[in-house]
Here is the input.
Amino acid sequence: MASVTPTKKIDLYAQFKHEYVTPKAPVLVTIKPARYLAIDGQGAPGGARFTAAIGALYAVAFTIKMSRKFDGRQDYAVSKLEGRWYFDGEATDVARKDWRWTLMIRTPAFVTPAELRKAVTTLVARNKPTEVKEVRLETVKEGVSVQMLHVGPYENERETIDAMRAFAERRRLQFAGPHHEIYLSDPRRVPPPRLRTILRQPVRRVR
Amino acid sequence: MPTRDATLRAYKQQMLNVLVHIQQHLDEPMPLHELASLAGLSPYHFHHVFTGMIGEPLLHHVRRLRLERAATRLKLTRLRVIDIALEAGYETHEAFTRAFAGAFGLSPRQFRERHHRSMTLDASSGVHFRARGRLRSFHTARPVKDVDLALPVVIKSLRPMRVAFVRHVGPYDRVAQAWDRLGAFLGKHGWLGGDAQFIGICHDDPAVTEPARIRYDACVTVDRRFTPENDIGVQTVAGGDYAVLTHVGDYGRLGDGYARLFGHWLPRSGRRLRAIPSFEMYLNSPESTDPQDLIVDLHAPLESR
Here is the structure.
């Protein structure tokens, strides 16, 4: 952990850097279909279910990656945590305990369902929490999206999202599909005013 | 219990003993255990505290004082440059000239010619070579000012932690090899659950021990069922009180965090260090984190009250 060796390790952020831009004002980006490890849930961010889901997701992600590495196969960096959020209407109209989400970690396309199954079996055999069984592989197709960097506490995203919506409307686009967040900072230690989060919102033409 | 001012005075007094000893024995070997015992510190922590309080590592300090003495000799005596070089601990004229010019910006010969130049080098401690008279005080170094380092030091009481580890012996910047080996082994066998913690135990100080001999243990917490295998060992990280400083930023700047914890916080804390190594806990991975966002909790072991 204490130093990074430059190797030919795959880094998805470098490979798809135009999909991870962090502009201070909204921009349009085109996102190619991408493979993720994902786990669904409901409940407040930071709550027991949410925390268990993060633990399960990372356990599976590292077990798959490290097994490949141990076997001398193509190595890659485990990506950052991302989340998609589902609201019927505005987030502010829904109680936090009823928030529905999918937590995700982007994974190279060459990771197979068989590797996922093997990782889950290994973890369960070690008595790791059974949430690992809920982790699945999913290909997400977002296409044209509005994207912007949000700096500050998650509770203050409203303003950033409003700017993204105004930007979309000026181009005769409307939000289509769940709100997507890519967590660049670690909320366990980074003070809320300095948290950096990419907000991404798939859009489509207004008909 | 002594007051905080009293402990700071005690730390400063003991460090002054060390500085006086160095000044009086500038040409002798300075065994770590001797200096540590003068400072009333465990050899594990001496260098962190010295660097933190004095503002430069021990070897720098000694080397600087020797160069300042050489400058005095150049200015005030007619000794040959090679003799001054030998006294300053350099085996050749060239090595001495290079070091001297690097520090004073002039070759020894040029320096002698323009001997009106100041004979002291910059040092925040205010400690300089003295031909006579005893050193009476010094300035403690100020911690590096940085918003990222401004998180408060907290005292945590930890339970003992059982860890699987791979020992790395060699330059500190190659410890990634040990992590690669440990991570691949534990991951493959399902030990990297969401609650696994990543710990680095530094047995030696890179400022003192030659790079090839530095010992570092890359550790991951495991439960009782884990058994050692080949190069993967098991040890227990001692529980008890630790002073914890969260360092946010490039690993290359961890020294600033150590200087703040051992040099600034500790002498004012009213606490003493335990004679076991300190350790680092890594909260995120350099593989998927930008260097400025890396988070490490530095743990300094404290004697219980």
